[in-house]
Amino acid sequence: MVKVKAEKLNIYYGKLHALKEINLEVQDHEILSIIGPANSGKSTFLKAVNRLNDLIFGSRMEGKIYLDGQDIYQLEVELLRRRVGMVFALPIALPLSIFENIAYGPRLQGINRRDTLAEIVEKALKAAYLWDEVKDRLDLSALKLSGGQQQRLCIARTLAVEPEVILYDEPCSGLDPISTLKVEEAMRELKKNYAQVLVTNNVKQAARVSDRVAFFLTGELIEIGSREKIFTAPSDKRTDDYISGRFG
């Protein structure tokens, strides 16, 4: 089932043509990784799906993006961002307790019963592979968690509002290998219930966790295919050169 579809998508920042005629589909229950060197439009694509480009002065979009077949610009932006959650490279924990970090989104939706919030918090932390590490200290400030724990906390906070799609913008770029492994484990488990799009500069990470891989270069989608095809028999020499480390 196609969850997200970009059709002839072009993004401009003033005179800069950041994305060029992108046609791409994200399937439900898959991890699609987007790889490519810097300034290839990877993060721009994520922001377009979540309409974060709307906040950038001078940005302009041509083409269409659909969520479950509906034009995202026909949705209220608050609803869209609830359905399409985003996890950024730098984990930003709120200056609140671990519990209140996760409960923040549900409270904004009008959920205030303590027992209901407790269920949501536990479920989200378990899904983010963090529950066992924090279950006895939920009243602790989230700012006291390690960087890797804060990133999984941000994933749990996203999950607490029950999105349908999760976008990750280099979520492990500042993490140590053990923390990265735990985030990747969470992503694999979350595939059962969510469509996920991962932007990563770590080609090996894309090879570990992806179902499909898209290679972007200077704003263009060069090719997209299964993990096995992209990493063993890419169709385009530029893809092979990037994966092999000959540039990028």
Short overview:
The chain is α/β, with parallel strands linked by helices and 248 residues long. The protein is built from 10 helices and 10 strands. The protein has a single domain, classed as Rossmann fold (3-Layer(aba) Sandwich), CATH 3.40.50.
Describe the model:
The structure is a single chain. This protein has 248 residues and is of the alpha/beta class. It has a single domain (2-243), classed as 3-Layer(aba) Sandwich (Rossmann fold), CATH 3.40.50.300. It has helices at residues 42-49, 77-83, 98-108, 114-127, 131-134, 147-159, 177-190, 203-209, 227-232, 237-243, and strands at 2-13, 16-27, 31-35, 59-67, 70-71, 84-87, 165-169, 195-199, 212-217, 220-226. The strands form two sheets. The chain has a six-stranded mixed sheet, with helices on both faces. It has a four-stranded antiparallel sheet with strand order 2-1-4-5, covered by helices on one side. Helix 4 (114-127) packs across helix 6 and helix 6 packs parallel to helix 7 (177-190). The chain is globular. The model has no long low-confidence stretch (mean pLDDT 95).
